[in-house]
Amino acid sequence: xxxxxxxxxxxxxxxxxxxxxxxxxxxxxxxxxxxxxxxxxxxxxxxxxxxxxxxxxxxxxxxxxxxxxxxxxxxxxxxxxxxxxxxxxxxxxxxxxxxxxxxxxxxxxxxxxxxxxxxxxxxxxxxxxxxxxxxxxxxxxxxxxxxxxxxxxxxxxxxxxxxxxxxxxxxxxxxxxxxxxxxxxxxxxxxxxxxxxxxxxxxxxxxxxxxxxxxxxxxxx
Length: 221
Description:
Helix content is 29%, strand content 22%. By secondary structure, the protein is an alpha/beta fold. It has a 10-stranded mixed sheet with strand order 1-8-2-3-7-4-6-5-9-10, with helices on both faces. Strand 9 (186-191) and strand 10 (194-199) form a beta hairpin. Helix 1 (19-28) crosses helix 5. The termini are far apart.
């Protein structure tokens, strides 16, 4: 049987029969796929398959200290992944999810080390991309996913770019057209009851501040 790097890249058109099911089943069975998101193409694997998570690091040449982000299919999934959530997190998600906001929260027990930072936190986002959400939902509602590229290189915005760079090392690429690209997600945590902007991205610091001020005016909080 040929090694992954010796195979021809597999590109699956999203309109092909059972394309979404095939992509999701590949993840559930421990494979690694590429799929489009609302920013760039990402490579995704199941949280329940440690070997698949290790493959992502190998494929990208990613530093093992840089834990993998998690993409979810719905805001409700965050309650299964995190513990000790500040009640204002859900209100922020009402405003910014689906979209380019990554929330840094305390990981629930049992999550793999590939997604949990040394301080016990995870980064979670719900992408604003219907195809990605459908695949994630069918693959268990949450996957580890990071940009589809070699570390230090530009992220792929098309299935052809995925194929040209890492296509031989993954199991398949789900072609959903051109990803919009642009700024990466904004990364936000709530520490000591206050918002802490860890990375300003597609959502500006001013937008986060304005949303937070609105929450502070809520008499029920």
